[in-house]
Design goal:
alpha+beta, Nuclear Transport Factor 2, Chain: A, five-stranded antiparallel β-sheet
Length: 180
Amino acid sequence: MKKLFFLLCAALMIAATSCNNNPKDTGEVIGEDSLGVAAPMDLQTQEYIEGRVSDMYNYAISSVMDDADKKFFTPDFYALQEKVLEKQNETGDLYIDHDHWIMGQDSHNPSFEFLKAEEIGPHYAKAYVNVKAFDDQEKPELVRLTLRYNGDDWMVDDIEEQYEGAFYSHRKIYEEALGE
C-alpha cells in the first residue's frame, strides 16, 4: 500500500512539472515585467496581427515620425535599446548602426510587405515582414518580429534580421553589449 501511494505521488509530481507552461522555462524572452493579461481571442488572429504590424510600419517609415520605437516597443525592449544607445554614445562602440524598421542607414521611399504571423498565442506571436530601404532595392530584407501582448495591444519585444539564412536577435545583441 505504501508503495502504491509513493508511485501515485511520484506520478502526480511528474505530471505537474511536465505541465509547466512558463515561457521563462522554455527559453522564451520575457523581460523584467510579468506577462500580464492575455490577448483577447479576437486579437489572436492573422488578420488582426497583420493590421497591427502594418500600422506599426506605416507609422515607422513615414518621414515625420521618429518615435516609433517608444510607441511600438515593449517597455523593457525600449529601455534595453536606450541603454545600448547610451553606452554607444559613451564608448563610441557601434552596436546600433541602422534603422531596424527598414534595415538600412538611409532610405528613399522605404516600403514593407507583411508576410505572415505564426505561433500566435495569448502572450506572444511571431510576424514576418519584408522591408526595403529604397524603392529600387532588388531584394527585400526579411525581418521577424517577436510580438508580445502588452497593455492593450501587440508590441515589438524583439526584432530579428536575417543574414545568410539565420536570424539575429537585436535583444540578444543588446544584452550582450551590456553584459547582461
